[in-house]
Amino acid sequence: MGFMRPLFPVSKQEKIFHELSVFLDKVTKSVLEFSASLERFCKTGKTDVSVVDRLESEADESRRKLERMIFSDFVGEKENFIELIEKIDDVADNAEIASWDLDIPGFTIPGEVKKSFLELSAALREISEALKKSVGSLAFDVRKVLTHASEVKEKRDELRKKVHRLRHQIFRIREAKRVFLLSNLAYRIMKIADSAEEASDRASVFVAKVA
């Protein structure tokens, strides 16, 4: 199954889909690196978030390059594709913002909630990979865009349930500052998942409009 009408001139299509793949790779790596940073932080109390910052900046550069290509070569409705790209970029932005919480002086994750944060880390990896598969399928099979978008939604719903349970654990902690910081980190992790779902939803809407 392919598109009923071409998105790009044939001569430009391979180049544009290649840049979309590069962009998706940068966004996915930013989430995976945040996940790895969170796991290191849980285990050692230390981490380096500079790699997440670098990957987010690289994703921004790739996004801008892709947008220039779209405005130059896109055959259909440019706005829909640009909205999709911006939603994907939000995922990397939220991963970067969440990583900053790990760099707050004196902040630690207590033992009683470490397992729950590690579970969120694993769930984020699955969500980011599903999003990459969903949007990446635009290049060869739009049916898989919808299949993987459903997977993103399911995994995002599971993560939100984990966050809800974690918040109950957090509020048993008596130290107010730590409760605030832990709750904030959990919320930011949820925002990464939410933005991934929004991006996959936008990919599904895009397919419906152009296929």
List keywords for this structure.
211 residues; 0% strand; elongated; Methane Monooxygenase Hydroxylase, Chain G, domain 1; mainly alpha
What do you see in this structure?
- By secondary structure, the protein is mostly helical.
- The chain has a single domain, classed as Methane Monooxygenase Hydroxylase, Chain G, domain 1, CATH 1.20.58.220.
- The chain has helices spanning 10-44, 50-73, 78-101, 111-136, 142-170, 176-210.
- Helix 1 (10-44) runs antiparallel to helix 2 (50-73), helix 1 packs antiparallel against helix 4 (111-136) and helix 2 runs antiparallel to helix 3.
- It starts with 9 loop residues before the first helix and ends with a helix.
Task: Briefly summarize what is shown.
The protein is mainly alpha-helical and 211 residues long. 82% of the residues lie in helices and 0% in strands. Helix 2 (50-73) runs antiparallel to helix 3 (78-101) and helix 3 (78-101) packs antiparallel against helix 6.
